[in-house]
Amino acid sequence: MTEIRIAAIQTHPEFGQVESNVDTALAAVPPECDLAVLPELFNTGYQFINRAEAGELAEDPADGFTARRLRVFAADCAVHLVAGIAERDGDRIFNSALLVRPDGSWEIYRKIHLFWDEKIIFDPGDLGFPVFPACGTTVGLMICFDWIFPEAMRTLTLRGAHIVCHPANLLLPYCYDAMITRCLENRIYAVTANRIGSEHRTETALTFNGLSQIVSPLGERLAAVDDQACGVIEAVVDPGATRQDLTPRNNLQSDRRPEFYDL
Amino acid sequence: MTEIRIAAIQTHPEFGQVESNVDTALAAVPPECDLAVLPELFNTGYQFINRAEAGELAEDPADGFTARRLRVFAADCAVHLVAGIAERDGDRIFNSALLVRPDGSWEIYRKIHLFWDEKIIFDPGDLGFPVFPACGTTVGLMICFDWIFPEAMRTLTLRGAHIVCHPANLLLPYCYDAMITRCLENRIYAVTANRIGSEHRTETALTFNGLSQIVSPLGERLAAVDDQACGVIEAVVDPGATRQDLTPRNNLQSDRRPEFYDL
């Protein structure tokens, strides 16, 4: 497999300003990158006051404004994009991540583990943890709070992912270090694209903690954002460098003993 | 549930000096503690040159020297002990951990995930990940390299463990931080008792990295050894403080969606 140039875009969306949020985020995608990951709900902002408001801003991924813009950009710039959006499917609303390819094809992941008030805004994801071909390799998608359940990234790994794209709107402080463990235990790459800024549209003020990062199968931070600013991080990754032996007698995939694991 | 005073004993065993290794380790157990965790293979040392040597030093946990000493000490001091030993069962040899209660009863865990040359020395554990009543709560046992497989501590958590006792002879640098993630994702306590020192009995020199620690269900280091020295760390833990909600709408046990997880 060939090397892939990956970028994570750390943004500061303004709630409800979909068009400018999309413009700003796409303007930050580096010209030479193969795969760019944008934050969770990068187009709408995070703190919906209720389900009805989320429904108004949610889009059909087949022909919604954001999805169309992503497809045009992906084609024009020959880049794969992963981005979090509010997805409408009939009466249902999901916190989803879109994967858009330069050829116009796309895939969707619907967040399985909803965080806090997301449970009253969104429907829980119903499509499991699929993996998708992209950039000559296999990628998996998970969103924000999915990180705390080791089964999420493990399932993506077992299904063949070499790179996990992880749009996020992180509020808790733990994920930054935990992703080191996630990459070590699975021996694959992860790209966390987080947002910054605060929202205070309900009684609860939320501050998002930035700290986007790209982590290697050895648990090394290949690139990370140091501070609370918008920015782009990039790393060149080699999907062939995943799932390698940890010692001459240990491979973390073949060493698993699922007959002794509970689900 | 009542609070439990836990100790982890960081030792420097001399290879093959079983009697003095046991004496030294037990002498370090604090007088008032309820549960003391000793390192992996604390009585024999780690680097067996071959399976035959391990067989000579392995013991029957029912009536071997070390097991009898542990039972006498546990009864005399009214303490629960967890300690790693080489276990002989007929022709088989396991890298095991004993749990010994003050009443003389005992339990055993046989290491499921063997590291590097352990695979030519020991048989792989065949008893899964049982949990045991101890100190008025439920404890689980895992050994050293088991940490890198999230399924180990997850299985113990699903089976009811509030405290995971983790004897170790750690060589890789990753476990110290990874145990923060393990405790956060499971919302239970973990006690890692590691050893220090070096062994160079084969062509490979091994240096063990100390860093024993007791970590809370919030991922806090309640106690940790700072340096490469023998020592004891202690913490008072509350099994009733495990498995608590992470947010008003999130509990990591009930939020799991195993229908979407692969094993």
Please explain how this structure is put together:
Two copies of one chain form a homodimer. Chain A has 263 residues and is an alpha/beta fold. The first copy, chain A, has a single domain (4-260), classed as 4-Layer Sandwich (Nitrilase/N-carbamoyl-D-aminoacid amidohydrolase), CATH 3.60.110.10. Chain A is 21% helix and 29% strand. The first copy, chain A, has six helices and 14 strands. Chain A has helices spanning 18-27, 51-57, 65-77, 118-121, 150-158, 175-186; strands at residues 4-10, 35-37, 80-89, 92-100, 106-110, 131-134, 137-141, 163-167, 189-193, 196-199, 206-209, 213-215, 221-224, 231-237. In chain A, the strands form three sheets. Chain A has a six-stranded mixed β-sheet. In chain A, strand 1 (4-10), helix 1 and strand 2 form a beta-alpha-beta unit. In chain A, helix 1 (18-27) packs parallel to helix 3 (65-77). Chain A is globular, with a radius of gyration of 17 Å. Chain A starts with a strand and ends in a 26-residue tail after the last strand. At the A-B interface, helix 5 and helix 6 of A face helix 5 and helix 6 of B.
